[in-house]
């Protein structure tokens, strides 16, 4: 399905090989995946468990860094640079896989099903524009967050500016 804003929405129920997904990502360029998270009995429970055990990002309880080791959905869909939403059959929300890393981490957030539909099915122009802008900003936002985390983990001696010694 192609939206008015130029997104192609792929509804995926069955297993899709990563090579096929990458080929579709490259072909469509602006693709959004909505993945059936109820296909296997364990998927929804694993995803919610990854969310519950995840680490909240900053002061937001709605964005978490989750670990994909015990979540098949997160592992299968890792490595995509396009928006991926998991549909667990909940009436009010989808689960947005914002980004993944090579070390088994995934950024995950609930997303309003109604807002998703409004953004892509002839809703307000503002909702569609906000979605587009956020998708474009995600890599920078997460990169800034990771940079800040690395800086905080350095010992104090590396975070303070060097002072010149008065001794000659």
What would a concise description of this structure say?
The protein is of the alpha/beta class and 168 residues long.
Please describe the structure with a list of short key phrases separated by commas or semicolons.
single chain, about 170 residues, alpha/beta, seven-stranded mixed sheet, 6 helices, 7 strands, about 40% helix, globular, disordered C terminus
Shape: globular
Stretches where pLDDT is under 50 for at least 5 consecutive residues are 157-168
SS elements, strand count: 7
Largest sheet: 7 strands, mixed
By DSSP (H or I, 4+ residues per run), the number of helices equals: 6
Mean pLDDT reading? 82
Helical percent range? 40-55%
Strand order of the main beta sheet, please? 1-2-5-6-7-4-3
The helix/strand order is: EHEHEEHEEEHHH
**Fraction of residues in β-strands:** 25-35%
Main structural class: alpha/beta
**Number of folding domains?**
1
Separation, N- and C-terminal Cα atoms: 72 Å
Q: From the alpha carbons, calculate the radius of gyration and give it in angstroms.
A: 19 Å
Walkthrough of the structure:
The protein has 168 residues and is α/β, with parallel strands linked by helices. It has six helices and seven strands, in the order βαβαββαβββααα. It has helices at 18-28, 43-53, 72-76, 113-120, 125-153, 156-159, and strands at residues 8-12, 31-36, 55-57, 60-67, 84-87, 93-100, 105-112. A seven-stranded mixed beta sheet has the order 1-2-5-6-7-4-3, sandwiched between helices. Helix 4 (113-120) packs across helix 5 (125-153). It is globular.
